[in-house]
Give the backbone structure.
Amino acid sequence: MTETLQISQLGDPALRQIALPIDNVHDEEVKRLIDSLMTTLVSSNGVGIAAPQVAVPYQLLIVASRPNLRYPNAPTMSPTVMINPRLLSHSQEKVKDWEGCLSIPGIRGLVPRYRAIAVEYTTLDGTIQQQTLTDFVARIFQHEFDHLSGLVFLDRIESTQDLVTEQEYLKRIVSTPADLK
């Protein structure tokens, strides 16, 4: 059985470290970490997670959008493990939308992010993959990718007035028709 890992909370120096590249994607330690990250992600109702969030300074993230208690309107996709990811290009258009973070419980913020991005990463089998991501999935990638540089979403908000509690966020998204969000 894979282990659920302790998620570092805001203030933990591990969240501000710069992550290191993974040299051997076939290393058993890397495989165990990926399995544990996936277990931690699912048990926490997250849609993404990065290794620095569990105090492991590796360039590894998982994007796993799916509707859940924290993101009831999230699109469904298969979890994608991204090793040594890179942001290759982005649209000019930025969109502000709500983000939360497993490392910053109880708070949501309106964060400007690129609407469309092109990314490159190494897969579990060691191949290089390029992909274009848009909208919510692009947002997840950018959020998790920031963790690899020691950034959290609070570093990206434009004003403290763009912050709300988790309860207020859920009240807003449940009571707002989809076309007005």
